[in-house]
Design goal:
Blueprint: E1 2-6, E2 11-17, E3 23-28, E4 35-41, E5 49-52, E6 57-59, H1 64-71, E7 74-75, E8 78-79, H2 80-86, E9 90-95, E10 100-106, H3 112-122, H4 129-147, H5 150-162, H6 176-181, H7 184-194, E11 201-206, H8 210-222, E12 232-234, E13 247-252, E14 258-264, H9 272-289, H10 297-302, E15 311-316, E16 321-328, H11 332-348, H12 353-370, H13 374-387, H14 391-399, H15 403-410, E17 418-425
Parallel strand pairs: 3-11, 13-17
Antiparallel strand pairs: 1-2, 2-3, 4-10, 4-11, 5-6, 5-12, 7-8, 9-10, 14-16, 14-17, 15-16
Length: 428
């Protein structure tokens, strides 16, 4: 077990890789009264096409990761959620594009039973054919709910415009056809390949004694046997240079129209640290430009260039990169032209030192707040592991950012691949 200390933030954490490859990180918070623990597999909705070391391509139905998340809560003896409740612990899970995470929080100072239960149920595939068939109807209802939500549908239609092959074209839960086509064999193969302990992270934020907790994990893992791990990597199909469609319109049961202007960027930054630094530089420039910090922001609202519902987001990940803007009730083409011009100006203008300083203060505040929430801290530590840039390294990237560096990272971003998505009220 390796002890780490970040003196600036007075944080201590421990790290160990178990004999079977399970990577464990434990943040010791002796003054906390609750423990949060998560067990994560690097298997999300983007991983429906994977490649083995010998070049074999494995295809899984869209939504397999989410379906697996649902089914692992079944155990040989009943309902796992009820088991956690009897222990006084709250348990839940989520599937994202990149990972599937199972977690619990408990106020009990003795975490042996809930921790053992988490390790046991996630590392035991007890799914039956009958339960798979039953689950299909439940997930179809969940999918229908998402498709009727305006925000979810706006994002989904934008992804379908940006990409021709990328899994982002489909919701995390999958398609109607892929859900119906799901088999027990699909789920078991995906589980055996992607839930090997050597691919997983166990993150704890706890007041409990670190050595005692690590010893519990060692003994639990030693009681299991696993096959040899299989090398896997995500195998996305190469996208055309152009977007799939530049404009789309969809009628929905809405009270007012919704618009999204999206820009598909090139996710071609191989170095993880540089990629994350670029993402932060873009975020800080956009936060300074497309917010009340900008001198003209209120004028934009008064002139109906944007509305109080205006929002924006950006992402630069290994396999996708984009900038998104959305609003309601405006002329779509006027909104598109306005956003394009403002974004071009934003990327070319140097971020003033005072604005950058304000962004850094906000980031530091949000960063410090993480350490008051066990679950938020555990999830942020996990994201650091997934990004291959630790939480503290990420903060230092922001802390050392200069206007010149910010400008150099963002001014050459290519905005040539853009799409416009419109959701129109059904009865207007």
């Amino acid at each position: 077990m390796i002890r780490h200390e970040e003196t600036k933030f007075q944080e201590v954490w421990y790290e160990e890789t178990m004999a079977d490859g399970l990577h464990v990180i434990l943040f010791h918070k002796p003054l906390f009264t609750t423990t949060s623990c998560l067990l994560a597999a690097p298997y999300g909705s983007l991983d429906c096409r994977e490649e083995t070391e010998d070049g074999t391509i494995l295809n899984f139905p869209s939504g397999t990761a989410h379906f697996l998340e649902h089914k692992l809560f079944e155990s040989d003896h009943g309902d796992v959620m009820a088991d956690f409740s009897r222990l006084g612990a709250n348990v839940n899970a989520y599937t994202s594009y990149e990972e599937t995470v199972y977690y619990f929080t408990t106020p009990d100072p003795d975490i042996e039973k809930p921790l053992s239960l988490l390790l046991d149920f996630v590392q035991n595939f007890a799914v039956t054919e009958a339960s798979v068939q039953k689950e299909k109807g439940i997930i179809q209802q969940e999918r229908s709910m998402y498709l009727q939500d305006g925000d979810s549908r706006l994002f989904l239609e934008t992804m379908r415009s940006m990409y021709q092959y990328h899994p982002l074209r489909e919701d995390i839960v999958g398609t109607e056809a892929s859900i119906q086509a799901m088999t027990l064999a699909d789920l078991e193969q995906a589980y055996r390949l992607n839930y090997h302990p050597s691919r997983m992270n166990l993150i704890l934020v706890t007041p409990c004694d670190p050595e005692a907790v690590m010893d519990l994990i060692r003994k639990n893992q030693a009681s299991r046997t696993f096959s040899a791990p299989v090398f896997l990597k995500r195998a996305l199909q190469k996208e055309p240079e152009t977007v799939f469609r530049a404009r789309s319109e969809t009628a929905m049961d809405l009270s007012d129209s919704r618009i999204m202007k999206g820009f598909r960027l090139n996710p071609d930054i191989a170095d993880d640290r540089l990629r994350l630094e670029t993402e932060w530089a873009l975020k800080m420039k956009m936060d300074a430009w497309f917010s009340p910090q900008h001198a003209a922001y209120q004028t934009w609202i008064d002139e109906k260039k944007i509305t109080p519902y205006f929002s924006y987001d950006s992402e630069i990940s290994r396999d996708q990169a984009m900038i998104l803007f959305s609003d309601e009730g405006l002329d779509p083409d006027a909104f598109s032209d306005f956003i394009t011009k403002q974004l071009e100006d934003c990327l070319q203008a140097e971020l003033p030192e005072e604005s950058l300083s304000e962004m850094k203060k906000r980031t530091l505040g949000a960063f410090l707040h993480l350490f008051d929430s066990p679950l938020d801290l555990a999830i942020s530590v996990l994201h650091g592991e997934m990004n291959r840039v630790s939480l503290f390294e990420e903060f230092r990237l922001v802390e050392t950012m200069t206007p010149e560096r910010c400008q150099g990272l963002t001014q050459k971003i290519d905005l040539s691949r853009s799409v416009l998505t419109i959701l129109k009220p059904l009865h207007r």
